[in-house]
Amino acid sequence: MFLSVFEMFKIGIGPSSSHTMGPMIAAARFLDMMRNSPFNFFGIKVSLHGSFAFTGAGHATDRAIILGLAGFLPETYDLIKAEAALSSIAETNTVNPEGLGELRFDPISDLVFDYEMPLSGHANGMILMATDAQGDVTLRQTFYSIGGGFVVTEEELAAGVATNEGAPVPYPFKSAAEMLEMAEISNQSIAQMKRANETARGGHDNLKSGTKRIWQVMRDCMDRGLTTDGILPGGLCVKRRAKAIHDKLLAERGMNLTAPHTINDWMSVYAMAVNEENAAGGQVVTAPTNGAAGVLPATLRYYLDHVPGASEAYIEDFLLTAAAIGGLVKYNASISGAEAGCQAEVGSAAAMSAAGLCAVLGGTPKQIENAAEIALEHHLGMTCDPVRGLVQVPCIERNGLGAIKAVSAASLALRGDGDHFVPLDACIETMRQTGEDMSNKYKETALGGLAVNVPNC
After folding, report:
1. Is pLDDT of 162 > 60?
2. Residue 165 maps to a domain
3. In a domain, 319, yes or no
4. Does the pLDDT at position 248 exceed 60?
5. Which of 129, 161, 212, 305 has the most crowded CB, counting CB atoms within 10 A?
6. Strand partners, 111
7. What's phi and psi for 381, nearest 5 deg?
8. Structural domain tally of the chain?
9. CATH number at residue 99
10. Is a pLDDT exceeding 60 seen at residue 366?
C-alpha cells in the first residue's frame, strides 16, 4: 500500500476537500472523458446526492462543480478569474471548456440537489451527464468524493481503487503493526521509511521541493488568517477571531502576566487562523482534509516557534511521519466526515500531528505509534454536525482543540517507552466500526447535533 505525502497533503481551496475540491476534480475528470469520447456533445447536467445534496450549498459544492466544468482546478485556482467565469456562465447558461467548445449548462436547471436518492457507494455522490442536441444523455458517470480531495468513479470504488498501486516501494506497510515491524528490522525511523518510499516513486528532488511548498502554503494560509478580520461568508454571521486573539497574545509577550496554559491559546489561534481562511474559500492544504486543515499546521508551528531547539530541518520528517499515519487511517478506515463523522477528519488530523511532533522531538517508532493512537482514541465517536452545512461551527474551534490534543498525546507518549494497551490498528478499526454504526444525521448532513440545536441566524 502506498499513499504519497502529496496525496495526503493536497494544495487546494476551501471550504471542503470532499465537498469543494472533490467535485471540482470530478468535473475535470468528466471533461476528460468527454474529450476522449467519439460523441459530439451539446450540454451537461449534474445531480448531487447524499451529503452533497444536504450540505452542498454550505460547502460551495455547486460553485465548485460549475467552475470545474469551466476548466478550473484546485491547485491552480484563481479567485478573480473564477468570479468572472461564474458571472459569464450565469449570464450565458453555457460553459466553454478547452477542447469541447460551447456547452449548454444552466446552473439553475442543470444542477440538481437530489435529497431523495442517496447513492449506494458513498455519502458524497454525484452524477455527471453529457447530452446531445436533443437533450438525450449520451455519456454518464457517477463519481464519489471519498475525503481529502480523493475522487473515484463508481467502477473504481467497486474495484477498490483508492490507493496508488504503482511501482513497488521498499516499505509497503498496510498497518501500524507492519510499520513497526519494518522499522525494527530495518533500523529505520518511520520518516526514513516513508522517505524511501517517496523517492522510489518521485525522486529526491521532487520530495524536497514538494514538502517545502506544502509547508509554505500552510504557513502563508496561517499568516493570512492571523492578520485578517471581518465576517465569514455563508450567512451565519460568524466573526473571524484569530487576528484579535493573536494580537492580544503578541501584546502579552514578555509581560510575565500570562499563565502557563496560555500556550494552548497559541496552538488554538494557529489552527483557527487556518480554518477561518478555509471557511472563507482561501487556499489551504488538506491535512488530511480541509475541515481538519488547521490541526497539523498549528502543531508544526507550535514546534517551530515555541519548542526550544526546534529546527526547520525537521519539517520534512514531521510531514512524512504524519503522512504515514494518515495513509494508514485512510486505507483501513476513512478520513471522510460524510462517511465516519468528524472522528475521521479532526481525529485523523490529530493522530497525524501527534505522530509528526513525537517524531521531531526524538520519539522512537513505538512512541510515535503510541502518540497517534492516544490522539485518535480521544476523538472516537466525534460527530460531524456543521451548522447550516458550513465549515465554521463547530469546525473552526474544533481544529484548535485537535491541535492541543495532538501536542498532549505526543508529550504523553514521549513519557513512556512505547508500550501501551491499545494498538493504533485497533483504534483505527474502532473508528471505522463507529463510523459504520453512526447515524447519518451526524455525518456531514447538517441534520443532527449542533446543526439542529443552534439558531441559524
Report:
1. no
2. no
3. yes
4. yes
5. 129
6. 46
7. 90, -5
8. 2
9. 3.30.1330.90
10. yes
- Beta-strand relationship, 111-114 and 43-50: parallel
**45 and 144: one domain?**
yes
DSSP 239: B
Q: Which grid cell is 272?
A: 483557527
Residue 255: predicted pLDDT: 79
- 144 and 49 in a common domain: yes
Specify whether 154 is located in the same domain as 214.
Answer: no
Half-sphere exposure of 372 (CA within 13 A, CB side): 32
Q: Return the pLDDT at 254.
A: 78
Residues 208 and 141 in one domain: no
Look at strands 94-95 and 103-104 and give their pairing.
antiparallel
Within-domain flag for 449: yes
Say how far apart CA 30 and CA 28 lie, in whole Å.
Answer: 5
End-to-end CA distance of the chain: 46
- Is residue 61 assigned to a domain? yes
Cα-based distances in Å from 315 to 124, 297, 366: 33, 11, 20
Label residue 165 by pLDDT band (50, 70, 90). Answer: low
Given a contact cutoff of 8 angstroms between Cβ atoms, the answer to whether 141 and 154 are in contact is: yes
Q: What is the pTM of this model?
A: 0.92
Burial of 44 (0-12, 13-18, 19+ CB in 10 A): buried
317 shares a domain with 391: yes
Quick one: pLDDT at residue 23?
Answer: 97
In terms of Cα–Cα distance, which of 276, 280, 270, 232 is closest to 250? Answer: 270
Confidence label for 161 from pLDDT (cuts 50, 70 and 90) = low
Residue with cell 471540482: 24
SS3 392: coil
Non-local (6+) Cβ contacts of 265 within 8 A are 245, 249
Domain boundaries, position 236? 176-453
Residue 147 and residue 97: Cα distance in Å, rounded? 26
Nearest to 294 by CA among 270, 315, 316: 270
Rounded to whole angstroms, the Cα distance separating 82 from 79 reads 5
End-of-domain residue from the set 117, 133, 159: 159
